[in-house]
């Protein structure tokens, strides 16, 4: 494997290494004045000269840079540094290299006056940075060797890194995959988010229950971020709006209230095999610099300090809700802080252009709203343009509606954000006025198109009038955006025919589909290096990492027994790694020859982990009743669950308890032995997903049709050669098309029948509605087979009295049938392996590169801009950029 990796490394470096020493790579030069960059009054030639080359990447240079950081950054002596310190020093050394590319990228984009895409998201679940950075910079092998000499194993140091978990689930992880693709595809872009002091809680399991513990992820420092003391913006809350007359025009001035500062922290995001390194810019709240002197002077020192603490509180913690609205004032403050700081930053960057022409704004700026959470950005940009830049309302509105786009991630009604008018009025009085203005302009158009159609007006209005008035953030987002998209075909169709039907009828061209994707860098190249090496070897290069369609070429290899064996070996190695990890984290021994059957995702009723565990009970009962002859034919299974429940989501938490109670009984039943094991893996997160997913043989994506917008782990599983047991929901529908029905296990009610089946469920006696197999399972739970615990009964109660809204009872029989097909196939290892391979090599559509390319072309109108590569000889690189005459002469001289 090492040999292959080295081979790949040399393939990627060959363009720049010929004839040059890798420690002497020159940086591009930039012609400062010509491009309107701030030229320093000083003579900077000396500085340019000192910064003209990149840090070396030969073994000695890497070792020197690591020990340099041990001594000068960490201030450790050479006798006194632990594995953690080595991780820190290593990270700082990698960070130096990231920063070089990062600075060059920023300079280049500025010089090219590039249009940029700004991805606004309250969540970025980026996962660990070290391995990803090394892989993308093509330095993994070099550092591995450099470290071995110093007595460290690179993989062990990977484990020292905390997993920054600034997101809940799919939505935040999607944002992270998108950044990786944006960087890799050379799109000028920025991610904007919040630097929460506490990420998503750590999940502990005590007595079978979920217990939440705070995730203070910054405890050990964060070498990957760059604190920008000079990038800070004032953010105002509360106060009042004053109207003033200015040259015959009424202007609004928002004053009073509280102000705090948002400070930028940048994490460089490197692309794969490119210099392009973009920024994830996260905001942290700080106290405004003005100290509360009145309190201070009256001697109330502590009151003055309190104000400061209140400011820091705003970005202190991520709301742990997934697909449910939180509706708290602090959450609204977080949303506003993100959008206000980001829009101020975007406007500042735009204003640095030579000529200020506001009409050019949409040709330089595209903003993507990741769900409605940052929807106030629309209003904030209007406020900046109207109140501060003094544009008239209509021009400002034109600019805004050409710059924003909105992605919807769910049709679940409980997730659609609405903010009470009184709260917005109190916290953001000027924004409420602007929202009313937008609504007025929009409803006038509705009235023109559908005169006096009150039904339309009330469905389309941004303000909901029933009860306490509320602002519907989805309506605001649609009205303020150029394009609106869903995240999988079936989901986009649902948007058009259900929740956004009226909008679709009015503006059909506004709606697009952009099926989600995941990055093959993290989810194959980093998580499954052995599979990546197999691809490298068979395809002859690592180009597939950037162009997943190349995997098509492997179709014919499926009939090559050696290829199939190699693939099986890799799966086995990944299973071993997983078994080891499960032993360590869950104290359960898994049978490596059993079928590894995995469901990992947030715990939610619509995702139906309940159906899975009820089936496990059914399977357990079957095994108990089987004859010795029958037992011989039973396929051994290890059923593994993972996922967090929102702390306030009682039913979800009970499902966790049920899984653990069932696991206790089954895993300790000696009659069962290795035939069935059940594990609940605590604290599912990005870094353990990188161990879990490559080991999976079957993964379950079994939501009720029409509830899962897309799902993205389904894509990661197939990329790693895993079969899906799933419903025709979300992206499963497209996975089914891509891999072929013979390579996936599909079951359950289809979307067009869901309403009828719910109706049937409500009108049928539960004893007839639920199949016998399931009633038997209910009885066992009722009888205390899994513990005498009221809660276990309550879970059953959550579906058994004509309240089975997610159709567990309806789909159960079909689910059992599909499970039998799984067993039948697993008895034929070769067939199973082939189908797994088809899943892996036909997964190319689900690369986030494809998704991002579609966004860039069809929504953002964005062109890639490649940052100049390092040069072997001084000044050679400059050719990539417009050269001045003297520079050209110089370059020619060196060449000749
Ligand atoms: C989630 C959906 C998933 C989808 C991700 C990313 C929210 C609101 N939605 O199905 O539930 O894969 O978004 O699009 O978190």
Automatic annotation (TrEMBL):
Q: Which InterPro entries match?
A: Glycg_phsphrylas (IPR011833), Glyco_trans_35 (IPR000811), Pyridoxal_P_attach_site (IPR035090)
Q: Which GO terms describe its molecular function?
A: glycogen phosphorylase activity; pyridoxal phosphate binding
What are the alphabetically sorted keywords of the record?
Allosteric enzyme, Carbohydrate metabolism, Glycosyltransferase, Pyridoxal phosphate, Transferase
What is its cofactor? pyridoxal 5'-phosphate
Q: What is its EC number?
A: 2.4.1.1
| One GO cellular component term | cytoplasm
Q: Name one GO biological process term.
A: glycogen catabolic process
- Stored PROSITE patterns: PHOSPHORYLASE
Q: What class of enzyme is it?
A: transferase
Nuclease as a keyword? no
Catalytic reaction annotation:
[(1->4)-alpha-D-glucosyl](n) + phosphate = [(1->4)-alpha-D-glucosyl](n-1) + alpha-D-glucose 1-phosphate
Spell out the residue ranges making up region: Disordered. 1-23
- Extract the Pfam families matched here: Phosphorylase (PF00343)
What family does the entry list? Belongs to the glycogen phosphorylase family.
Instruction: Write out the function statement from the record.
Output: Allosteric enzyme that catalyzes the rate-limiting step in glycogen catabolism, the phosphorolytic cleavage of glycogen to produce glucose-1-phosphate, and plays a central role in maintaining cellular and organismal glucose homeostasis.
Q: What is this protein called?
A: Alpha-1,4 glucan phosphorylase
Q: Which organism is it from?
A: Paramecium pentaurelia
């Amino acid at each position: 494997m090492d040999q292959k990796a080295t081979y790949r490394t040399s393939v990627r470096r060959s363009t720049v290494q010929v004839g040059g020493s890798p420690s002497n790579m020159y940086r591009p030069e930039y012609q400062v004045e010509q491009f309107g960059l701030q030229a320093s009054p000083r003579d900077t030639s000396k500085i340019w000269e000192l910064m003209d080359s990149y840090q070396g990447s030969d073994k000695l240079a890497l070792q020197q840079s690591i020990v340099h950081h041990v001594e000068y950054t960490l201030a450790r002596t050479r006798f006194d540094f632990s594995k953690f310190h080595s991780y820190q020093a290593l990270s700082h050394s990698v960070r130096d290299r990231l920063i070089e590319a990062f600075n060059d990228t920023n300079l280049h984009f500025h010089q090219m006056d590039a249009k940029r895409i700004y991805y606004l998201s309250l969540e970025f679940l980026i996962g660990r940075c070290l391995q990803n950075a090394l892989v993308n910079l093509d330095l993994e092998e070099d550092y591995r060797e450099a470290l071995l000499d110093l007595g460290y194993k690179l993989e062990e140091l990977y484990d020292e890194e905390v997993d920054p978990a600034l997101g809940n689930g799919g939505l935040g992880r999607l944002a992270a995959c998108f950044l990786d693709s944006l960087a890799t595809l050379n799109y000028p872009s920025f991610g904007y988010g919040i630097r929460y002091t506490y990420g998503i809680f750590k999940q502990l399991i005590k007595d079978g229950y979920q217990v939440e513990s705070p995730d203070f992820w910054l405890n050990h420092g964060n070498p990957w971020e760059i604190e920008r003391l000079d990038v800070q913006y004032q953010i105002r809350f509360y106060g009042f709006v004053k109207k003033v007359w200015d040259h015959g025009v009424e202007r609004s001035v928002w004053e009073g209230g509280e102000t705090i500062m948002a400070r930028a922290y940048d994490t460089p995001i490197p692309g794969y095999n490119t210099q392009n390194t973009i920024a994830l810019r996260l905001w942290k709240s700080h106290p405004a610099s003005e100290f509360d002197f009145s309190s201070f002077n009256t001697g109330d020192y502590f009151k003055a300090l309190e104000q400061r603490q209140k400011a820091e509180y705003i970005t202190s913690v991520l709301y742990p809700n997934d697909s449910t609205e939180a509706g708290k004032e602090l959450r609204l403050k977080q949303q506003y802080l993100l959008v206000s700081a980001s829009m101020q930053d975007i406007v500042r960057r735009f204003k640095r252009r030579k000529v200020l022409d506001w009409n050019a704004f949409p040709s330089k700026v595209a903003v993507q709203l990741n769900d409605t959470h940052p929807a106030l950005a629309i209003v904030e940009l209007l406020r900046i343009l109207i109140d501060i830049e003094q544009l008239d309302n209509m021009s400002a509105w034109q600019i805004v509606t050409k710059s924003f786009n909105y992605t919807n991630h769910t049709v679940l009604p409980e997730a659609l954000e609405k903010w009470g008018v009184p709260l917005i009025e109190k916290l953001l009085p000027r924004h409420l006025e602007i929202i009313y203005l937008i609504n007025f302009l929009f409803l006038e158009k509705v009235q023109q198109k559908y005169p006096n159609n009150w039904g339309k007006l009330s469905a389309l209005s941004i303000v909901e009038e029933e009860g306490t008035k509320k602002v519907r953030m989805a309506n605001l987002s649609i009205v303020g955006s150029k394009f609106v998209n869903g995240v999988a075909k079936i989901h986009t169709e649902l948007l058009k025919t259900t929740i956004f039907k009226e909008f679709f009828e009015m503006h059909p061209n506004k709606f697009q589909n952009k099926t989600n994707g995941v990055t093959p860098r993290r989810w194959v190249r980093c998580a499954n290096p052995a599979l990546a090496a197999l691809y490298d070897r068979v395809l002859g290069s690592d180009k597939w990492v950037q162009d997943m369609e190349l995997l098509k070429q492997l179709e014919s290899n499926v009939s090559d027994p050696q290829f199939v064996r190699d693939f099986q070996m890799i799966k086995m190695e990944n299973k071993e790694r997983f078994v080891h990890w499960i032993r360590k984290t869950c104290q359960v021994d898994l049978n490596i020859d059993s079928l590894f059957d995995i469901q990992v995702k947030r715990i939610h009723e619509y995702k139906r982990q309940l159906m899975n565990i009820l089936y496990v009970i059914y399977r357990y009962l079957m095994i108990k009743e089987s004859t010795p002859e029958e037992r011989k034919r039973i396929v051994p299974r290890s059923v593994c669950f993972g996922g967090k429940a929102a702390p306030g989501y009682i039913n979800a938490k009970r499902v966790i308890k049920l899984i653990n109670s069932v696991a206790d009984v089954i895993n300790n039943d000696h009659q069962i032995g290795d035939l069935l094991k059940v594990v609940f893996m605590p604290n599912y997160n990005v870094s353990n997903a990188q161990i879990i997913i490559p080991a999976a043989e079957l993964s379950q994506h079994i939501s009720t049709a029409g509830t899962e917008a897309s799902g993205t782990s389904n894509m990661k599983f197939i990329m790693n050669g895993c079969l899906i047991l799933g419903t025709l929901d979300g992206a499963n529908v497209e996975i089914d098309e891509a891999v072929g029905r013979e390579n996936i296990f599909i079951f359950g009610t289809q979307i067009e029948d869901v309403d009828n089946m719910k109706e049937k469920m409500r009108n049928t006696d539960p004893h007839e509605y639920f199949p016998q197999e399931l009633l038997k399972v209910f009885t066992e739970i009722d009888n205390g087979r899994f513990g005498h615990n009221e809660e276990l009964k309550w879970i059953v109660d959550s579906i058994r009295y004509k309240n089975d809204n997610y159709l567990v009872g309806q789909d159960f029989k079909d689910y059992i049938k599909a499970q039998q097909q799984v067993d039948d196939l697993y008895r034929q290892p070769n067939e199973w392996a082939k189908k797994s391979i088809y899943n892996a090599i036909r997964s190319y559509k689900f690369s986030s590169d494809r998704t991002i390319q579609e966004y860039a072309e069809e929504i953002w109108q964005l062109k890639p801009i490649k940052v100049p590569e390092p040069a072997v000889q001084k000044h050679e690189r400059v050719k990539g950029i417009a050269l001045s005459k003297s520079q050209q002469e110089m370059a020619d001289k060196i060449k000749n």
